[in-house]
Design brief:
This protein is of the alpha/beta class. It is built from 5 helices and 7 strands; from the N terminus they run βαββαβαββαβα.
Length: 196
């Protein structure tokens, strides 16, 4: 679905994964997508964190995890090189050719995404975990995960829910059914265009 804003970045090789709540399965869905597509095409993953300038108060509650601290400039893009259990490390281990952690202030989201897209080959499938990216870009497909653990909807999800192409319940069976069926049919036209 298109937004009325004609200045959106056209990210036609991107599947954007958002969620109505925290810990709703964005990385789990991305891992299933990587496993399904890594032998068919190059897959690159973005984990994008939108930072609000709230001083010491974490927008995610409490003192937070520290991810918002230490940002120098308006945004940064860090390639994942480690191994372990962080989401970006799991995406890399699953078979993504490259994984980038992108941290950006909300006002610099578009600029950060533009720079990140320059790092990706044109024929690669991009998986991006973020709600806020939908405010600045039009992906090939925007998947919203409906949280099964929270009845409230994050403000970032509420702002873009109307643009979701697919809304999935938070469960691995629904994720697998979607990845093995509907997902490939929905993104195939975007990759066929670039290969002609």
């Amino acid at each position: 679905m298109s937004t009325e804003n004609t200045t959106l970045l056209q990210a036609r090789h991107m599947v954007l994964i958002g969620a109505t709540g925290r810990n709703s399965g964005k990385t789990t869905l991305a891992l299933q997508m990587i496993h399904s597509f890594k032998d068919k095409m190059s897959v690159v993953a973005f984990k994008l964190i939108t930072i609000r300038n709230h001083g010491d108060i974490c927008p995610r509650g409490g003192h937070g995890c520290g991810i918002c601290q230490g940002l120098k400039g308006c945004f940064d893009i860090t390639p994942e090189t480690g191994t372990g259990t962080k989401d970006t490390m799991l995406l890399k281990k699953a078979g993504a050719k490259q994984v980038y952690l992108i941290r950006a202030y909300k006002d610099n989201l578009r600029e950060a995404l533009e720079e990140a897209l320059k790092l990706v080959p044109e024929d690669a499938l991009i998986l991006c975990e973020s709600n806020s990216v939908r405010l600045v870009a039009e992906p090939a497909l925007f998947v919203m995960i409906q949280s099964g653990t929270s009845s409230s909807i994050k403000p970032t999800a509420e702002a873009v829910m109307e643009y979701a192409d697919v809304i999935l319940p938070q469960d691995e069976v629904s994720f697998a059914d979607f990845v093995q069926g509907e997902l490939y049919r929905k993104i195939k036209p975007y990759f066929s265009e670039s290969n002609q």
